[in-house]
Automatic annotation (TrEMBL):
Annotated GO MF terms: hydrolase activity, acting on ester bonds
Organism: Mytilus galloprovincialis
Pfam name, any one: TatD_DNase
InterPro entries referenced in this protein's UniProt entry, alphabetically: Metal_Hydrolase, TatD-like
Gene3D superfamilies assigned: Metal-dependent hydrolases
Name of the protein in its database record: Uncharacterized protein
Protein family per UniProt: Belongs to the metallo-dependent hydrolases superfamily. TatD-type hydrolase family.
Length: 374
């Protein structure tokens, strides 16, 4: 927002309490790149090129403080890779909430320096040639590796629109020692931790041993039951377990033994078919189902689950850094800003659904389930 304030100060214009693009509420907004794209589309390529040749790209009013000048080839490349105009400016944005992503893993994958920082991660530059422009307004930041759990200070990232979940991925069950277990219990009792997970069962590799995973799952479920907080479940079967059917049965059995029927459960990256969805809803009527980019490759039975699960139970997850869209370079990774790719998959399966509609419904469901506000 600094550059926009500088423009207003130089022109003697009143500063608004908040700059908005739709509608444009200040002359300062005219330097925003999305508005610049709109202006260039109106005046045509010839006049746009004349302006690029007349002035260096960057700030004149602030003598370079807004941004360093670019040469003409860089400016052209920036224009060519920008999102389509209707996505960037004119399309009303649905409320978009990422119900599950891994800030610590994403930070490590992208080789960013220092400790994970939510703001820097959300503002990082991404490939945009096919990006469906969205505004991610909040989400659930999932830490499931005990060795990279956030510090107490980093938990302060939580506000009305973002919440941190801490748990133990079933493949990392051996990392849970007494000290980490005590810390998790303390954070929960003091109210600094509002969501437990992800935790669950994963038999895809055979390690750790099932009994170790089950004991860890039961311990976390007991904490969730005592604290009354939502629990995020990871359920994955072995290679011969179609739709993870047996793993789901086992996980339901463990949950029934510890949780009450009304406990808030979020099934992360749900890959089951309609039968598995029914089993969960029969045992836990308020269960919510998280879908990732995997929805774009679902089988017919999995698609049937997407169709029949009530709309108010669907959650959209980027699961970043995983599920990189096909059009993103191979060196890239998934990101919350690619959440529209999940909505595309949902819209392609559910008759009458739209991408924006799926984003809006998923966002509202996440806000309600996790008690968030945007």
């Amino acid at each position: 927002m600094g550059p926009m304030r500088e423009v207003c100060a130089a022109g003697g214009w009143t500063l608004p309490s908040q700059f908005t693009l739709v509608p444009v509420n200040s002359p300062g907004v005219l330097i925003h790149w999305r508005i610049q794209i709109l202006i260039m589309s109106w005046i045509g390529e010839r006049r746009s090129q004349e302006l690029r040749e007349m002035y260096p790209v960057g700030s004149i009013l602030s003598q370079g403080r807004i941004g360093p000048p670019l040469n003409h080839s860089q400016a052209s490349a920036s224009m060519e890779t920008s999102p389509r105009l209707e996505n960037a400016v004119s399309r009303p944005r649905p409320i978009t909430v990422d119900a599950h992503f891994h800030l610590d893993r994403a930070w490590a994958k992208t080789n960013l320096p220092g400790r994970p920082n939510l703001r820097q991660y959300m503002e990082m530059r991404l490939p945009s040639s096919q990006l469906y422009a969205i505004d991610v307004r909040g989400g659930v930041i999932n830490f499931c590796d005990p060795r990279t759990w956030p510090s107490d200070e980093e938990l302060e990232v939580q506000d009305q629109s973002w919440v941190v979940a801490m748990g133990v991925h079933p493949k990392k069950a051996r990392e849970l020692d007494d000290a980490r277990a005590f810390r998790l219990e303390t954070l929960l009792k003091t109210g600094k931790l509002r969501v437990l997970g992800e935790v669950g069962l994963d038999f895809s590799t055979g390690a750790p041993q099932p009994q170790i995973q089950i004991s860890t799952l039961r311990w976390v479920l007991a904490m969730a039951s005592q604290g009354g907080v939502p629990v995020v479940l990871h359920v994955r079967g072995g290679k011969d377990d179609v739709h993870s059917a047996q793993a789901h049965i086992q996980c339901i059995r463990q949950c029934r033994a510890i949780l009450n029927k009304g406990h808030p459960i979020h099934l992360h990256c749900f890959d089951g078919g309609w039968e598995q969805a029914q089993q969960w809803m029969d045992n836990f009527p308020g269960v919510h189902f998280g879908f990732t980019g995997a929805v774009n490759a679902f089988s017919e039975d999995q698609k049937l689950a997407v169709v029949r699960i009530p709309r108010d139970r669907l959650l959209l997850e980027s699961d970043a850094p995983y599920f990189r869209p096909a059009w993103v370079p191979r060196a890239g990774y998934g990101h919350p800003k690619y959440l529209a790719e999940v909505a595309r998959g949902i819209a392609a399966i559910r008759q009458g659904a739209t991408v924006d509609g799926a984003l809006q419904e998923g966002g509202m469901n996440a806000l309600r389930f996790y008690g968030l506000r945007v």
